[in-house]
Amino acid sequence: MFDLKMIKKCYERMPDNILKAKKKIGHPLSLTEKILFNHLSIVNEDESFKRGSSYVNFDPDRVAMQDATAQMALLQFMMAGKNKVAVPSTVHCDHLIQAKTSADTDLVSALSANNEVFDFLESVSNKYGLGFWKPGAGIIHQVILENYAFPGGMMIGTDSHTVNAGGLGMIAVGVGGADAVDVMAGMPWELKLPKLIGVKLSGSLSGWASPKDVILKLAGILTVKGGTGSVVEYFGDGVKTLSCTGKGTICNMGAEIGATTSIFSYDSKMEDYLRATGRSELANLANDVKDHLGPDKEVVENPKNFFDEVVEIDLSQLEPHLNGPFTPDKATPISKMKENALKNSWPISVEVGLIGSCTNSSYEDISRSASIAKQASLKGLKAKADFTITPGSEQVRQTIQRDGYVDDFNKLGAKVFANACGPCIGQWSREGAKKEEKNTIVHSFNRNFSKRADGNPNTHAFVGSPELVTAIAISGSLSFNPLKDHLINEEGEEVMLDPPSGFELPQNGFKSDNLGYQEPAADGSKIDVKIDKNSDRLQLLEPFTPWGTENLKNIRLLIKTKGKCTTDHISMAGPWLKYRGHLDNISNNMLTGAVNYYNDKVNSVKNLLNGNYAPVPDVQRDYKFNNIPTIVVGDENYGEGSSREHAAMEPRFLGVLAVLVRSFARIHETNLKKQGMLALTFQDKSDYDKIQEHDIFNFQNLNEFSEGNLLVLQLTHEDGTKDLIKCNHTYNKSQIQWFNAGSALNLIRSQS
Fold this sequence. Notes:
Elements: H1 4-25, H2 31-38, E1 55-58, E2 62-66, H3 67-79, E3 89-92, H4 103-113, H5 115-128, E4 131-133, H6 140-147, E5 154-157, E6 171-174, H7 177-184, E7 189-192, E8 195-202, H8 211-222, E9 230-235, H9 244-253, E10 261-263, H10 268-276, H11 280-288, H12 297-301, E11 309-314, E12 321-323, E13 331-333, H13 334-344, E14 350-356, H14 363-378, E15 386-390, H15 394-402, H16 405-410, E16 415-416, E17 439-443, E18 459-463, H17 466-475, E19 487-488, E20 494-495, E21 517-518, E22 555-560, H18 567-570, H19 583-586, E23 605-607, E24 612-614, H20 616-625, E25 630-634, H21 646-654, E26 656-661, H22 666-674, E27 678-682, E28 696-699, E29 711-716, E30 722-728, H23 733-741, H24 744-751
């Protein structure tokens, strides 16, 4: 049981803080508002708390980091001048384990290939007081749910799927490493007060429908940017029918609609999960403040009066969905998949089915999927597609092994990968992927962007529940509908799969021997952080040089991106994960996946110094060498995807001054601000069309950069004509200080 004293303090202050908030706000509160107001840092009497516009400072209860993002976050923390983290913090080694053969083999390979990174993370955790979860312990978000998440709490994590903890009634927000550094250094965490989207669930799931289908349907309704700047709060009688881990699944994939986070109210399902995971004392504490761990009655009865948007979903009518390809919001009910696949020429034959990951690797998920695998074997069926399972944690793996589910999967010829992210983040050594053949895979992961899983731009990836993925892997066909379609077994007989069955929690309890946790040293003052000065994996950071406050001129266009530009396009994962602790080396992937508007090519932009087309990082390094600032121009929802702060740090390191787009994804905009860059949006979105390849950009009023004031850019075109572009920004006074100082970290250092 971790951090019990901290949790007690959180609950002790909750009643008074909620009462104060009600008086100040003047209306009943949602659960989201209760938790936010209980974690306010300093309350000013004149603070407006206006949703969608007010910046508010909070004091989160904890910080969590995965090994890929932790490297840069902790390198930044080392620059902050602190001796110990100010709040409970953990590091989880899950991203750097490549899935290829099997759990044991892949883990050994990862330990060998990433030894210096793991040693660094272990030593820096030991020195500065962070809990350390070793490679193989499990995926950060599942481990957080099993050990740290608690109803009514607030945490931040350097991964967009931190929101998984909402399944246990926690405000959990994915952030960039610089935000984590602020909190670990004892400073408040700043967040624009989110809007509220209420999702009313009625009825109950049955048959093939699963919690995953709730968020797959919602993604189809709201799209990948429909939740931007909002918290999604679930309520209604249907909520009580969902397991705690099912709620976690729904919250987890809320990252794919751009939501700040998602959350469920505390209920008996959460209590059961807390007790099953050895946290009965916490369950007792939560029961004592249960009235504060849900929305006020008036909010539930009249949701349209209190939420900015309300969506209703009837669980009893919910059909299994598959979302994709190439975007997680393209939602197709399974009954329409055959029709849509034929219409869009999607490959019908399914090559691989993959289940697990941080979002769908609970005991319930695995047991329900195993029930499909078991009956398939009994009915004489064999999987026609390759099939893989990625357990979410060592605790889950040990338990499903003991209970025979791994044997059920093995009978289908399945591979069990390590307790790590693997294929979900591009850490999948898939045989034949380099041929870039058009093919289809189905998985229970969340993201399915082009090249995401295996590096092949022609892999059509569809997202579904683990139960549905298992059935489709058995059939080998994207058009298979297990609700009505028959299969032909080895004996030539027609058989149907029965709906899945399973257990929310293990009947014999979780098996939890040696889960891979390491407590930090009581005194880290004499511990040396391990970084080889000749390493190509780790590099100490140097402060960024401030831009100055005068009007910057003669700015060149690095790239005008065309269409979707996610953090995967800006800073690819996969093989580049090895350089997450070396800013110079990883900067060689900057914007290499973005499509250049002017030639429809990736990693090919014009160097305006010589007129030649070359890779994006090479061109930008030339501009940097010649002290020429640059600008990146993008379309809608720029920076969609993970919390990857490298997507902001790389351009900053190489000398990009500003990013000007039609709209931003929340985390990426914040990351740009933190690194001391200008994150701007077109006041008139049609001005995107005015940007020409040879333009020279001059700021007209950067010397007057202030809260609420537009910035104006003058464009000088190749023919000598000029345009003025008005640029919106969302910087407040504190954030403008970050820019003036060169980065938020520079400001922290100056104040230490």
